[in-house]
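User: Run a structure prediction on this.
Assistant: Running it now.
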Amino acid sequence: QLVETRQSTKVVADILKSAFPNSKIVYSKANLVSDFRKDNNFYKSRSVNDYHHAKDAYLNIVVGNVYYTKFTDNPLQYLRGNEGVKYNLNRLFDFDVARGGKIAWVKGDDGTIALVRRQMEKNNVLFTRYATEKRGGFWDQNPLKKKGTLVPLKTGLNPAKYGGFDNPGINYFMLVESDEKKGRKRTLEGLPVYLSGASAEKQLTFLQSETGPNLKNPRILIPKIRINSLLKVDGVPMHISGKTGDRVAMKYGVQLVVEPEYERVIQRIDKMLEQKKESGQTAPISHDPHDKISDEDLTNLYETLEEKAQTPIFRKRLDAQKQKIVDGKAKFEGLGFEEKCRLLCELLKLFQCKFGTADLSSINGSKQAGAFTVSKNLSTNQSVRLIHQSATGLFESEVDLLKVGQ
């Protein structure tokens, strides 16, 4: 937290005190954890994965516990008891820290820092998303000219004659079974925000309408599958992000993990490019001004991402870009220092658990590569499971979307 007196911080502390009356609330300032990271070479990059949230939480516990044990929740009391004694906060972790028989820190490379390093090297972090119903605009604000598939301007006005609205916002998805030429199919259909709270009868009418998916004899099997719900499609985890045309936009559910040395390189690249942006510098960066990364580091990182793209766990996510990355290695080698850095940042976007695209034009790829979508027709897959997770990810249950309702 930034300031102990901020109102939101006080409210959260009051809630925690109410929920856990026998516990003590310990405040830990963000800059203390940041300094601890730097002093111990715990690299942090938001471009790699989302695990830094969990690791920050862990470090806040470690650092907060040491400071609380040393100074209690009243530093003035410590100063009164040590009047005239000079104390260097920068060397707090160079000594043992204990109070009342409680040991918070043991100095030395074999002391507490060894335990902290082991924990920070772990990447078995449980990763969940908050499944929710999407709010916001009903559709694009500007009405379009006549077209039969638009949402009517008003009830009863034929959009094929009077025009209407396009791109209705999706509130949540439904699992629907309907007729096709070869029998029945199961699809994920988005329910528009403007139909939120509509009766089952109105939802069925929408599913059969031209402004909707225009299904034949639809049957709603699961009436509500929220945005950010976790699916496993043929064993590959992914989170529902939204709708794009007849496909479902997804966020990949596998976090990228790289060695600490590469995380250091990525962190440095991010910092260099950010500093250039803030300074307004126009000349290209020809090398790292502080010599923290070299051309060899950039090449090694590219090769690492190239290898990752070909692993089975990322195969479904990067199937369309995999060969482009492999073939682009020679092109990458011919780029300038800054161009290499920017391309690596774009490549990392392909591995992130977000819905977005990457600019691979510098290696003859698309400027908008990597939008991750799957067909809304689930019947084309061998296995599709909806995973209901607890907030912590410790508990979960599965629903087989290809068998439910049979």
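The radius of gyration is 27 Å.
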